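Query structure, 165 tokens:
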């Protein structure tokens, strides 16, 4: 489930990861976009879904006035936009020449967009482990890592415990 419209960040990343998950899990993985209410419609659908591990949420926080790298990358690459700074604590792999806001103006500044995959709390731990292994495997696949990096994303796999902390 991607709680935003097709073609957005959540949708793009969800489809890249789902494609690889389908290969490793040997079954279709469908990305269902349920946009509306700032992501709350899709999020609520996942929260109320059966705890069978077949409904996951691909989501991300959004910050007003800042555009995630994945959205501006093609425009910066084409010269239509100029990247002034990145909000993360370290420079983006997509824009290594662009300083961080911490370097340029506000020491300690660190605001990072991230994406996570969540499932209903009732999904059994064994199923969560299978899903986590599939997602982590997808993120480690060189082709998927290259595709995500080309979109301006920096793939990282966290355990359920690390993600929840």
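Result returned for the query:
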């Amino acid at each position: 489930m991607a709680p935003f419209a097709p073609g957005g960040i959540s949708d793009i990343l969800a489809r890249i990861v789902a494609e690889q998950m389908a290969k490793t899990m040997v079954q279709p993985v469908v990305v269902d976009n349920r946009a509306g209410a700032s992501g709350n419609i899709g999020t609520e659908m996942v929260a109320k879904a059966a705890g069978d591990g077949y409904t996951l949420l691909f989501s991300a926080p959004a910050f007003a006035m800042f555009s995630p790298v994945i959205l501006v990358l093609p425009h910066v690459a084409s010269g239509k936009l100029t990247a002034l700074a990145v909000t993360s604590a370290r420079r983006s792999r997509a824009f290594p020449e662009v300083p961080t806001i911490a370097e340029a103006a506000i020491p300690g500044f660190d605001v990072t967009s991230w994406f996570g995959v969540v499932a209903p709390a009732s999904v059994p731990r064994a199923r969560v482990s299978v899903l986590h292994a599939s997602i982590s495997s997808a993120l480690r696949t060189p082709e998927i890592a290259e595709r995500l990096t080309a979109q301006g994303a920096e793939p990282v796999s966290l355990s359920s415990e690390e993600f929840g902390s």
